[in-house]
């Protein structure tokens, strides 16, 4: 497992908690709009500075009583079979854990929740199931059925969770959001739209794409909000 980054403090990445963010390299998706290419593309990962587990846990021990939580993000954290043991060590230090995931590993997700190793899950919804992009970004061996299983599992409400979508012109059309709402919506579901940032994207062409206007995204969130407990544009 490669720890490729550490944000020492954040008040926006873990709802209601002061947290740090640990970035694990490697991902089994290839979203062309992804702006974390240094955590995804093997050639970039190889050149990325690394933090040892010892350095990370030394940092956490010093932050006991100051930070409340740890956000584990990627890349895709669940591609690492060592992840449960890594989280166990974090939990032993008394931190709450939020997992950011693309939903491709429902088995590990269930195991982590059932073992009470995660307290909050944020799952990316890349698009509506009908949008051809979903299948095109899944890495080798990843099936859309896995995404579906993760959605269904989270909606059962065994852990606090949210779904979120980075909204990208040329990928998403307005009608995608009513289909997403019908797919993932529910009375216990929080769903957030996030605007795309055309920065250091995996596919360089996406750096020339102008993000949607804020008004368009706010209006879209408003229109589908009846499907959710909460739905809004996240800054
Ligand atoms: S956006 Fe997330 S899931 Fe997609 S390639 Fe980047 S890190 Fe992987």
Topology readout:
Layout: E1 3-10, E2 19-24, H1 42-46, H2 53-62, E3 69-73, H3 83-92, E4 96-101, H4 106-114, E5 120-124, H5 132-137, H6 144-155, E6 160-167, H7 174-184, E7 186-195, H8 214-224, E8 228-234
Parallel strand pairs: 2-3, 3-4, 4-5, 5-6, 6-7, 7-8
Antiparallel strand pairs: 1-2
Bound molecules: iron/sulfur cluster.
Iron/sulfur cluster binds at residues 27, 29-31, 34, 36, 39-40, 74-76, 102.
Q: What key phrases describe this protein's structure?
A:
235 residues; 8 helices; 8 strands; binds iron/sulfur cluster; alpha/beta; eight-stranded mixed sheet
Structure explained in plain terms:
This protein has 235 residues and is an alpha/beta fold. The protein is built from 8 helices and 8 strands. It has helices at residues 42-46, 53-62, 83-92, 106-114, 132-137, 144-155, 174-184, 214-224; strands spanning 3-10, 19-24, 69-73, 96-101, 120-124, 160-167, 186-195, 228-234. It has an 8-stranded mixed beta sheet. Helix 8 (214-224) links the parallel strand 7 and strand 8 (228-234). The relative contact order is 0.13. The chain binds iron/sulfur cluster. Iron/sulfur cluster is lined by residues 27, 29-31, 34, 36, 39-40, 74-76, 102.
């Amino acid at each position: 497992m490669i720890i490729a980054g550490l944000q020492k403090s954040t008040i926006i990445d873990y709802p209601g908690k002061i947290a740090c963010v640990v970035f694990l390299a490697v991902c089994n998706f290839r979203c062309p709009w992804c702006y974390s290419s240094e955590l995804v593309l093997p050639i970039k990962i190889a050149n990325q500075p690394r933090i040892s587990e010892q350095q990370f846990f030394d940092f956490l021990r010093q932050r006991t009583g100051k930070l409340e939580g740890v956000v584990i993000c990627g890349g895709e954290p669940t591609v690492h079979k060592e992840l449960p043991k890594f989280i166990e060590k974090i939990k032993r230090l008394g931190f709450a854990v939020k997992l950011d995931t693309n939903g491709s590993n429902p088995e590990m997700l269930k195991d982590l929740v059932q073992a009470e190793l995660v307290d909050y899950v944020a799952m990316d919804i890349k698009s509506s199931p009908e949008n051809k992009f979903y299948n095109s970004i899944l890495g080798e061996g990843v099936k859309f059925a896995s995404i579906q299983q993760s959605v269904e599992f989270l909606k059962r409400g065994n852990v606090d969770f949210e779904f979120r979508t980075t909204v990208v012109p040329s990928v998403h059309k307005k009608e995608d959001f009513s289909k997403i709402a019908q797919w993932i919506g529910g009375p216990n579901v929080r769903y957030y739209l996030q605007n795309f940032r055309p920065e250091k994207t995996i596919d360089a062409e996406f750096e020339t794409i102008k993000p949607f206007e804020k008004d368009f995204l706010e209006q879209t969130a408003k229109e589908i909000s009846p499907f959710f407990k909460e739905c809004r544009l996240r800054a």
